[in-house]
Amino acid sequence: DDDDDIPQLSSHTLAALQEFYLEQQQREGMKTSQEFNQYSIGSIEEDWQLSQFWYSDETASCLAKEAVVAAGEGGRIACVSAPSVYQKLKEQDGKDFSVYILEYDRRFSVYGEEFIFYDYNQPLNLPENLLPHSFDIVIADPPYLSEECLQKTAETIKYLTKGKILLCTGAVMEEQAAKHLGVKICKFIPKHSRNLANEFRCYVNYASGLD
């Protein structure tokens, strides 16, 4: 029989697949509805292969508020590999600040001119319009918990910032964060929408509201 070589799905697998397609259709329906906000967390789904883990809504809101206060009136904010903070900042229409997102994932190019393609392996390969020391605060979340990744991302951060740095990375990186960026750990503990095995912390080099 020619059908013998065709893999057959079990009823359980088939039901799970149908459920997945239904959820996918619902998500697509939400995206086309008027209520959909392209800046809401989850509008672009996590890609674990790119080591992406979105913050919880509460954490993203807290970090966004901190950035606005730290940047000051008319301030400029750079989000380096921290798209969920960028999305929260963009929800705050009418606020007097500007924000850019530096991100490897080109799906975020939907955000137009505020999106800048960024590869931490080439930390200073940045557009000419990103002038040195032109941002009031830089928020960064290096994608990997390695000193190499932190060190290279630190080059980008130090190039962009006028002085203020808000770093989010693993607790195990505390010593390297101090070494490369002169930042200290905060009391505030960031949470992710999916629980991570690694303990995450925030680090700053200024008097912040995160303590």
In summary, what is this structure?
With 211 residues, this protein is an alpha/beta fold. The protein has helices at 11-32, 57-71, 83-91, 147-160, 174-181; strands at 75-80, 97-103, 115-117, 135-140, 161-170, 184-185, 200-204. It has a 7-stranded mixed beta sheet, sandwiched between helices.
Question: What labels describe this entry?
Answer:
211 residues; alpha/beta; Rossmann fold; seven-stranded mixed beta sheet; 5 helices
List the helices and strands and how they pair.
Blueprint (H helix, E strand, L loop, with lengths): L10 H22 L24 H15 L3 E6 L2 H9 L5 E7 L11 E3 L17 E6 L6 H14 E10 L3 H8 L2 E2 L14 E5 L7
Parallel strand pairs: 1-2, 1-4, 2-3, 4-5
Antiparallel strand pairs: 5-7, 6-7
Helix pairs in contact: 2-3, 4-5
GO molecular function, one term: nucleic acid binding
GO biological process, one term: methylation
Subcellular location: Cytoplasm
Molecular structure report:
With 211 residues, this protein is an alpha/beta fold. It has a single domain (50-204), classed as 3-Layer(aba) Sandwich (Rossmann fold). It contains five helices and seven strands; from the N terminus they run H-H-E-H-E-E-E-H-E-H-E-E. The protein has helices at residues 11-32, 57-71, 83-91, 147-160, 174-181, and strands at 75-80, 97-103, 115-117, 135-140, 161-170, 184-185, 200-204. Strands 3-2-1-4-5-7-6 form a seven-stranded mixed beta sheet, sandwiched between helices. Mean pLDDT is 83; it is low at 30-36, 39-44 and 46-51.
